Amino acid sequence: MNKIYKLIWNAREQAYVVTSELARKSGKVVGAKVVTTVIGALALTTNVAQAQCVSTSEQNQICTNAAEEVVISDRDRPNGKDIAFIGIPSDDPITSQEGVFDVLGLADGQNIRVKVDRTGQNGSLWGINSGTGKTIVDISGDVISSGNEMIPGDTDTPKFDDAVSITNSENATNLTVNQAASSSTIRGENIGITTSNSGKGSTNIDVAGTVQAKVGIYADNGQNSKAINISQAETGNIDGSVNGIVVNNQGIEAININISGNVTGKGTGTGSVPVDTDDTIDPMNPNGDIFNTGSGIIAENHENATDINIHQLEESSRIQGTATGISAVNSGTGSTTITTVGTVIADGPEKNGTGISVFNGETANAINITQKTGSIK
């Protein structure tokens, strides 16, 4: 019997989520984008390469029942092909077929690991983990968004405009994206690295190379998730034509951002940043206002979260925006702490930007801003 799953655009999470076609609908979804993948006999023409899924003793497109983790490698990926996967809990082996997505039949607690080593390749990396384990993405090569249609020939479905897009569903745990090589380039038409973690763990993003897109990094944690941790090496360069880093934390722990390299947001906005009280933010324009386009770093904690910690660690580091260099909004229960040692600058065309902008809500604690060396302007 075929097992049918739907990918449905979740407006609150700003990501696609996997749901069984047999699941009870809780209400009408207005304007939802739906992609259906059939696990069974249906074969589809695809823009997705047959990734090397390592299960027990053989390598194929459909992976089941590996010991601790399923590994997807890009080593045989042709140029222009995408890596796309869906991890779904399965007690029974899934019949292999060629499809749009690599379908991973996951045992309880089993992790998904993706390895990207090749350089100079076009092709996006996109995946959903609806299992109960971790998602780990190791990137030492290049990921450059392809713009391919998610379902080839179907212009109503979205395109692979983000370079790296990873989603953890509610039963998954940690979500990690690790760009390990300084020579690595991650380049998206829309977003360079975007993560949506509705699971029970933390989100961890490490950057050692170049990340380029309209928004360099967008990280979103759901209400049951934990911390968002973003770390950039001194060799790193996060370059957003709109915003550099945007973090939206609805989880129960802190935002921790450590910057040693350069972060840039080149949007056209100027001036101070208004406060956002909505459940979601648009990474292109987080508060629905021109004032918040053009920020190096935007970090927002919602009511269940705790601290916001943003630390610039190297004197050579530069955090630059047009509206703001660093913007932090903490509606949680912790403190907001920012330390700088390098350059933090807002240099919009009107010359009235804000180097650092911080707002703490009624339930938050202290605001601590420390400039050890460098300049803020």
Q: Could you provide a short overview of the structure?
A:
The chain is mostly beta strands and 377 residues long. It has strands spanning 3-10, 15-20, 34-39, 52-54, 59-60, 63-64, 69-73, 83-89, 102-106, 111-116, 125-129, 135-139, 143-144, 164-168, 175-179, 185-187, 191-197, 203-207, 210-221, 228-232, 237-249, 255-259, 262-265, 295-301, 308-312, 318-321, 324-330, 336-340, 343-346, 354-360, 367-371, 375-376.
Average pLDDT for all residues: 79
What count of helical segments does DSSP give?
0
Biggest pleated sheet: 17 strands, parallel
Rg is 20 Å
**What is the general shape?**
globular
Beta-strand percentage? over 45%
- Assign the structural class, choosing from mainly alpha, mainly beta, alpha/beta, alpha+beta, or little secondary structure: mainly beta
The amount of helix comes to under 10%
Give the tally of β-strands. 32
The low-pLDDT segments are 1-5, 20-52, 54-65, 92-98, 270-279
Cα distance, first to last residue? 63 Å
InterPro entries: ESPR (IPR024973)
Protein name: ESPR domain-containing protein
Pfam families: ESPR
Organism: Snodgrassella alvi SCGC AB-598-J21
